[in-house]
Specification:
The structure holds 2 protein chains of 2 kinds. Chain A is built from 11 helices and 12 strands. An 8-stranded mixed beta sheet of chain A has the order 2-1-3-4-6-5-11-7, with helices on both faces. In chain A, strands 8-9-10 form a 3-stranded antiparallel beta sheet. In chain A, α1 crosses α6 and α3 packs across α4. Chain A starts with 38 loop residues before the first helix and ends with a strand. In chain A, 49% of the residues are buried. Chain B is of the alpha/beta class. Chain B contains 20 helices and 25 strands. In chain B, α10 links the parallel β10 and β11. In chain B, α4 crosses α8, α7 runs antiparallel to α8 and α9 packs parallel to α14. The longest helix of chain B has 20 residues. Chain B is globular. Classes of the chains: A alpha/beta, B alpha/beta. At the A-B interface, β1, β2, α2, α4 and α10 of A face α1, β9, α9, α11 and α12 of B. β2 of chain A pairs parallel with β19 of chain B.
């Protein structure tokens, strides 16, 4: 299969492997050093399992991370990788993706890295729609610095730095990404390998910035933050599944549904709704308003329920494609570079001394 | 009437007016005319940070100084021979710089009670005799302009805006400048507004004719072209030369140029210029902030581009952490700092050299970064190419320290022959460079070149060389994370040694000491760096003109220093280091060589004044060798 035949426009220009690949080829020789029971292991396993399926040349894949527990991720993948500095991975990846269309560029970040110190780069890469895949591991706590509250921690969180409870209102990462007009915005959970792989595949296929929030448990500093969504007893009531083209229903018997709320212009959850009223999820809607309304169904405090799935998936021009196109247009007829350079240096008002 | 023609060897003219009066354009056009005439020249634009400060006030004054001569000159000059002042504020703000006897040409139109009071004049200086020691010519430039262009039907306000061209025409006549290029320029610039175009061209010609016919001017001046080496020349500013140098760095290395930048005075013109040259494969990325600008450049460098970021001092402060990452990852990266007055926002449009220590040390940990500094506007081209060579050859961030004076100032540039430019070989790694325990080939990203200590640069897309780099300490050779104490000590020393190795490629420091060859020579050395080259050179000429001996040397490389710098310093009884800071190079020299250098420091936001510096050098010569006496009496500034 040549690169032009790939079904994924996101990977259109990335060369494909000559032979099938396996998970082992994508596993580096470095010992994984996360805490036992960390949700990062599950995500790493899913990525190592899913990358070979993309069928890309391994040397054309790059993972760029910032700082934090999750940002050790690139060391464990035998691709090209960069473990950069706190919050800056989207900026670094923007330069790489813009200058190299033949690479599949991934950013691995956390809630502190992406939403606190690196918030500016995150929103700007989303608005530019650079061809990047951003995986935000959200454990709602600072792990590597040993347990301070994060910008996604629930208000009132008691931590080492907030003994009387945290005061600030948290970010909803999906709302933020949609507000920045992200063209691909999704949420998944570390413990659901199948869903995680499905979302990552769709992200890889997307041309533009794909933003994936991954609920990820920190067993040391914030254990159980997502239990409602993992516990077999409660998860049917906690997970609001978003599937494009499907009515948004959940609960053990699908008895709950999401309907439009004429009073607020948003959406709300009702028990036993009239089936005709249940919202049918449209991830491809060009207007992000409904996707944003759905993102507001996420609890800001202790998590009782949240939508999971792809909120938005729309095609728009990407910054890097447009930037390269300008260069292509401008370069037409440049000819020999040395001659062109001589022409440039000798342009303007000149005079000759003999 | 036939006018007398008087020959001069040099003239300094300063055009001054309100920010909205077009003084920068007027100065620039006069400069282009002068350049094409063949004089040597040097310019100093000086303008406020405000785009339009309140009209007619002192803070709103904008000026452009041009020094031109029939011989080679080094500075825009200390004190203008001619001041053109378009309003009372321009007169007041610039009078202190003008010597008695100098010519002052004013537009008397704006010398109204209201404008005089805006400029804090209690009475009209044109009428109260306070300017009696100057050669003052007051003309109704505005009224004459409006009269000259009335056929084009413009409003009085629009018509009067052409008064700068009237003044330019007058000065062009006075100094016999060729006019074709300015007329061609006006026709291009206002091609879409024929009435404005015609008004400007007409005002320009009217100014010329007025100069020729008015009885106020009895003399026309002639300044012969300066002898220059054979070649093709153009006038060029530092920012333009620097942008061209970066493009040359790209073509000479074969690496695509990627600029990540955030607008900041006085560096933005480099972003503007490079964005016009996408046909050279140049990508310009206007980032969300300074940090993203350098981050994107570093990301592009990881991908095999010539990554560049351009900024000024406050931007460097924000980029520091990423520069440190570049040092750790050992990737080529160019950081251009067009220095301005600091600290903090400081003097955004004025010049200073106070970022040297920031460039040298402004990072956490032991993070050595090579530093290159251009010495004149045209030299920014060569300095940028040299910085690119060091960055690519040694796989390291390199700091290029320009400044506001170099950025906006201009001088004639002999256009280089592209075939003669140095080529830069990026020597990408293409194959494994090591064998693992099982005898399999593998790639070690930190296995160094023995000569340069540079690590291999393997870009994504290269099969079999997949590797991970980052900000954590690396194990020597294999490059995996290492917290080993001995390894860290070794790596810190190795990174420092790599930067020191750059000195092995550098030529010996050029010392200009005319008497040294005949066994004598100066006892005092004046050592500078960056844009002080011009003022130091002019001051040294003045001192030598009095019969005293003094040596001069100028550093292009601030880190590492040339290998022989210590020996050079020790050859002299005294070393003076003039800088536009409080002694930053002095501090480095004292620390490194234990030499008691004498600082000469001003931070006025303007280039050093050559005459004052000459006095300081003369004093130091006297203090070093009391028997040294000037042998030539001179009251005139010696500029050769």
């Amino acid at each position: 299969m040549t690169s032009t035949q790939l079904p994924f426009p996101g990977l259109r220009d990335v060369p494909t492997a000559d032979a099938p690949q396996n998970r082992k080829e994508f596993t580096s020789d470095q010992e994984v050093r996360w805490c036992p029971g960390c949700g990062d292991y599950a995500v790493l396993a899913a990525v190592q399992g899913f990358l070979p399926e993309l069928g890309l040349k391994r040397e054309n894949i790059v993972f760029v991370s910032g700082i934090g527990c999750s940002s050790r991720f690139p060391y464990y993948l035998d691709t090209y990788g960069m473990h950069s500095i706190h919050g800056r991975a989207p900026a670094i990846a923007t330069g790489l993706a813009t200058s190299r269309k033949d690479l599949s560029v991934w950013v691995v970040t956390g809630d502190g890295d992406a939403l606190s110190i690196g918030g500016n780069h995150l929103i700007h890469s989303l608005r530019r729609n650079v061809n990047l895949k951003i995986l935000l591991f959200n454990n709602r706590i600072y792990g590597l610095t040993k347990g301070q509250y994060s910008p996604t921690s629930e208000p009132g969180k008691v931590t080492k730095s907030t003994p009387m409870g945290s005061l600030d209102n948290p970010f909803n990462p999906v709302s933020l990404a949609l507000g920045a007009e992200g063209t691909f915005v999704a949420r998944t959970i570390d413990s659901d390998r199948k869903h995680l792989t499905h979302v990552l595949s769709a992200a890889a296929a997307h041309r533009g910035t794909a933003f994936v929030e991954i609920y990820q448990n920190c067993p040391i500093f914030n254990d159980g933050a997502f239990d409602a969504m993992k516990d077999n007893e409660s998860k049917a009531d906690a997970i609001i599944p978003l599937v494009h083209g499907e009515p948004i229903r959940f609960g053990n018997d699908g008895q709950r549904g999401v309907v439009r709320d004429p009073a607020t212009g948003g959406v709300r959850i009702v028990d036993d709704p009239d089936p005709a009223d249940v919202l049918v999820h449209d991830a491809h809607a060009s207007d992000p308003t409904t996707a944003f309304a759905l993102s507001r169904l996420t609890d800001a405090g202790v998590l009782a329920h949240a939508p999971i799935g792809i909120f938005r998936q729309v095609e728009q021009p990407t910054y890097d494609d447009l930037a390269r196109e300008q260069i292509t247009i401008a370069s037409q007829g440049t000819g020999d570079r040395a001659t062109a350079l001589a022409g440039l240096l000798g342009s303007g008002d000149t005079w000759t001394v003999v | 009437m036939t006018k007398q023609v008087k020959r001069l060897d040099r003239v300094i003219i300063r055009f001054a007016g309100d920010s909205g009066d077009g003084m920068q354009l007027t100065g620039d056009r006069f400069t282009q005319e002068t350049a094409s005439f063949g004089n040597d020249l040097s310019t100093l634009p000086n303008f406020p940070a405000e785009i339009r400060a309140p009209q007619g006030t002192l803070p709103g004054v904008s000026s452009f100084q041009v020094h031109f001569a029939d011989h080679d000159i080094l500075t825009p000059g200390d004190s203008p021979d001619v001041l053109v002042a378009m309003n009372p504020a321009a007169l007041k703000a610039n009078l202190a710089d003008i010597k008695k006897g100098a010519t002052i040409i004013v537009d008397s139109h704006d010398f109204t009670a209201r404008n005089l009071s805006k400029a804090a004049y209690a009475e009209n200086p044109l009428e109260n005799g306070s300017l009696s020691e100057y050669d003052v010519h007051a003309f109704e430039l505005t009224d004459m302009t409006v009269e000259a262009v009335k056929e084009f039907g413009l409003s009085r306000k629009d018509a009067s805006r052409a008064k700068n061209m009237f003044a330019l025409g007058m000065l062009s006549w006075m100094y016999g400048r060729p006019t074709e290029s300015t007329i061609a320029f006006l026709e291009r610039r206002f091609a879409k507004a024929p009435d404005i175009r015609d008004a400007n061209v007409t005002a320009f010609k009217a100014g010329w004719n007025f100069g020729e016919t008015t009885e106020a001017f009895v003399v026309q001046y002639e300044i012969k072209p300066a002898p220059m080496l054979a070649g093709t020349y153009r006038n060029i500013t530092g920012n333009l030369a620097l942008a061209y140098g970066l493009i040359a760095g790209s073509t000479q290395s074969g690496l695509p140029l990627f600029l990540g930048s955030y607008p900041i005075t006085p560096a933005s013109d480099i972003l503007h210029e490079l964005s016009k040259h996408k046909r050279f494969g140049v990508t310009t990325f206007q980032a969300e902030d300074e940090i993203a600008g350098i981050g994107a450049a570093l990301g592009a460098a990881f991908g095999g581009a010539l990554g560049v970021t351009t900024t000024s001092g406050p931007g460097i402060a924000l980029k520091s952490e990423t520069i440190g990452l570049g040092v750790m990852m050992e990737l080529p990266l160019l950081i251009v700092d067009v220095q301005r007055g600091g600290p903090s926002t400081g003097l955004p449009t004025k010049t200073e050299q106070a970022d040297l220590l920031q460039a040298m040390f402004g990072r956490n940990g032991e993070a050595p970064v090579p530093i290159v500094a251009p010495q004149s506007p045209a030299d920014c081209f060569d300095a940028a190419l040299e910085a690119a060579r060091i960055a690519i050859t040694y796989r390291t961030p390199v700091m290029l320290l320009s400044d506001g004076y170099l950025a906006n100032g201009s001088e004639p540039w002999q256009i280089p022959d592209v075939a003669e430019l140095p080529t830069i070989d990026p020597k990408f790694a293409t194959e494994p460079n090591h064998t693992d325990a099982k005898g399999q080939p593998e790639f070690w990203p930190y296995l160094r070149d023995e000569e340069t200590l540079a690590r291999p640069w393997a870009v994504p897309g290269t099969k079999g060389l997949e590797h991970r780099i980052g900000g954590l300490e690396k194990g020597e050779g294999h490059g995996n994370i290492s917290y080993d104490p001995t390894n860290h000590d070794f790596m810190v020393r190795t990174r420092a040694a790599k930067v020191e190795r750059i000195a092995q490629d550098l030529p010996p420091l050029e010392v200009d000491d005319p008497g040294a060859d005949s066994g004598g020579g100066a006892k005092v050395l004046v050592l500078g760096w960056g844009s002080t080259y011009g003022p130091i050179g002019a001051a040294v000429r003045q001192v030598r003109g009095t019969g005293l001996e003094v040596a001069q040397a100028h550093l292009r490389h601030l880190n590492p220093f040339p290998s022989d710098l210590g020996d050079v310093l020790k050859r002299y009884d005294a070393v003076m280091v003039p800088e536009m800071n409080l002694g930053q190079l002095s501090m480095l020299l004292r620390a490194r060589y234990l030499v008691d250098v004498v600082g000469y420091n001003h931070v006025r936001g303007l280039p050093l004044r050559a005459a004052e510096l000459a006095d300081a050098i003369t004093d130091l010569i006297g203090a070093t060798d009391p028997s040294a006496e000037p042998t030539v009496e001179t009251t005139q500034e010696v500029v050769r």
